[in-house]
Design a protein that fits this description.
The protein is an alpha+beta fold. It is built from two helices and three strands. Helix 1 packs antiparallel against helix 2.
Length: about 130
């Protein structure tokens, strides 16, 4: 998993690739007043922390058709990165819980006097 994280981190982008359309500035263009004739455009939308206010602001980066596949791949890599982070989080939660269950069981045995006079495997004379 760690190897995957290193590979994914190299080219990933957090954001969404959005396809939309718009009217141009040319008033004589057929796109004015006709939604079906609007000009298509693609952009990457991502939120970024505003340094001054500390709040999230949406940032837009226009994407040319020749760049589209790279941007889409980078966004997929980010999604995969978070899938792996979620999986690691689940494994770490289980590991912490298991450690504390073991420690709790040992503490309870000691409190009952269960470890006295017994060997490491809990066997011994009595």
């Amino acid at each position: 998993m760690l190897t995957q994280l290193r590979l994914l981190g190299a080219g990933m982008i957090r954001g969404s690739v959005i396809r939309s359309s718009r009217e141009c500035a040319n008033m004589g263009c057929a796109c004015h007043g006709n939604r079906e004739r609007r000009h298509p455009f693609i952009y990457l939308s991502r939120s970024k922390k505003d340094d001054q206010a500390g709040r999230q602001r949406n940032r837009i980066v226009y994407v040319r058709e020749c760049e589209l596949s790279e941007f889409e791949k980078a966004v997929r890599m980010y999604d995969e990165l978070w899938r792996i982070v979620d999986e690691l989080s689940e494994l770490n939660i289980q590991a912490i819980k298991a450690r504390h269950r073991e420690q709790g069981a040992r503490t309870r045995r000691r409190a009952r006097g269960g470890d006295e006079g017994r060997g490491a495997a809990g066997l011994g004379g009595g």
